[in-house]
Design a protein that fits this description.
Layout (H helix, E strand, L loop, with lengths): L2 H8 L4 E6 H4 L5 H10 L5 E8 L18 H19 L5 E4 L7 H8 L3 E2 L5 E2 L7 E8 L19 H5 L5 E2 L2 E2 L5 H4 L8 H8 L9 H5 L24 H4 L4 H8 L10 H9 L3
Antiparallel strand pairs: 1-2, 2-6, 3-6, 4-5, 7-8
The structure holds iron/sulfur cluster (2 copies).
One iron/sulfur cluster binds next to helix 7 and helix 9.
């Protein structure tokens, strides 16, 4: 095991890879490249890592990914340990960790490095954790020695995710975000009648796990070893949990969760639509 293998394993990553920025840039638009270069002038390498989050089968009305501590914070903190390790060797270089909040296309980075499989539902599948993994990246201006890479193969293309998708969001071209209930549960403001009907029939008030639950790779996923995603989980919210909370007190109570960023309004609306 080389130094980076050990550092990623110690950080809790189940898999990692790396590739030249110039290769990932082929999957990026001009604006994303500009933003990446603004963050890290002369970017040379992207590292990508996967962190499992499945905590076992539990009841609840929040998406599985949203029940533990906010993954943005957890993954960035864990990637920071890798950055500290690399800074010892490359002391004049920049190392910028990010999780779902950078201009880098994380899934494409993973697939180009051979981290997991390309799921037809647009997610990275990493057996034995299934698609229940968070991705994080490190962008750097250092040229790193990287392991050999073979791009990820596709999944079995069984079609179960497409059949299970309540919004009809999965087609040949990938995910149509405007039809995805994961986005819809987070939508603020007015809903169309069709959107309201979809949310009323949906079992979750935040997120949508339908395509992931239908996928055979997620039939018996391995449990996460990471305590932030295994302990102190918020599986469900009720009207009583949210009663009387202002935006400020809601954030005081739930600000360490990824479902908190929109405030309490969409959650209350979704509960009401379901008559809860
Ligand atoms: S998260 Fe739900 S709505 Fe979105 S693509 Fe998957 S099954 Fe469809
Ligand atoms: S449900 Fe089938 S087609 Fe969809 S991602 Fe899983 S293996 Fe691929």
């Amino acid at each position: 095991m080389n130094g980076l293998d050990k550092a990623f394993a110690a950080a809790g990553a189940a898999a990692w890879g790396g590739l030249p920025f110039s290769q990932l840039a082929e999957d990026m638009g001009t604006e994303a490249i500009r933003k990446a270069e603004e963050l890290c002038p002369n970017p040379r390498t992207v590292l990508v890592a996967a962190f499992p989050y499945y905590a076992g089968e539990r009841g609840g009305n929040l998406s599985i990914y949203a029940r533990g501590l906010d993954y943005h914070t957890v993954v960035t903190r864990r990637l920071n340990t890798i950055c500290d390790f690399l800074k010892e060797k490359y002391e004049n270089s920049r190392f910028l960790p990010a999780a779902d909040n950078s201009p880098l296309p994380e899934r494409q980075a993973a697939w180009r490095c051979g981290v997991g499989l390309r799921g037809r539902h647009g997610l990275v599948i990493l057996p034995p954790y299934g698609s229940y993994v968070f991705l994080g990246t490190i962008l750097t201006d250092a040229v790193l020695e990287l392991p050999e890479r073979t791009p990820s193969p596709g999944c079995t293309d069984c079609g179960r995710c497409r059949s299970a998708c309540p919004g009809g969001a999965l087609g040949e071209g990938g995910v149509e975000v405007s039809r995805c209930l994961s986005q819809l549960t987070q939508k603020k403001g007015e809903l169309t009648a069709e959107e309201a009907a979809l949310l009323k029939a949906h079992p979750l008030i935040w997120g949508c796990d339908c395509c992931q639950r239908a996928c055979p790779y997620n039939a018996r996923p391995a449990l996460t070893p990471l305590p932030e995603f295994r302990e102190g989980l918020v599986d469900a919210l009720t009207g009583a949990d949210l009663a009387g909370l202002t935006n400020r007190t809601f954030r005081e109570k739930y600000g360490d969760r990824s479902f908190a960023w929109r405030g309490p309004a969409p959650l209350r609306r979704n509960l009401e639509l379901r008559g809860e």
